[in-house]
Design brief:
7 helices; 75% helix; elongated; 2 domains; Arc Repressor Mutant, subunit A
Amino acid sequence: MTTLKERLHADVVSHMKDRNKVALTTVRNVLGEIETREKSGKTPVVLDDAQVTSLLQKEAAKRRDTARIYAEAGEPERAAAEIAEAEIIETYLPKALTAAEVEAIVDAVIGELTAGGTELTMRQLGAVMKPVTAKVAGRFDGKAVSEIVRSRIAQTSA
């Protein structure tokens, strides 16, 4: 199985052959950002797939935010270009989970913890968040996950 970074490098070649300039430029920019992250700091590091996925999410969000700013400023062409780049980046991200799927994961984790004899209060938020975050891993907004966990804990402790 290839890593996400290897897939990005392979897609550069295919975008060159297809003469898809927007996709080629976008993927090259993302690869440049990955390399910058890897080389920054005191010692060079190699980003794993989870870190690359996180970086891709940030890059896509950055482009969507920029598109919104362009749209508000009356620049629809530039906004459309940013959205096109965001959509290209999002093709490399794992399929997002629905709120119902996340709630089922949260309920399962809470069920496991309460079955183990743990009484859940807001103090045990981290004990629930850690396994939930590992299962959700970049496929759902972290803040929304936290809100779901908080509401579920409030329901069980009430």
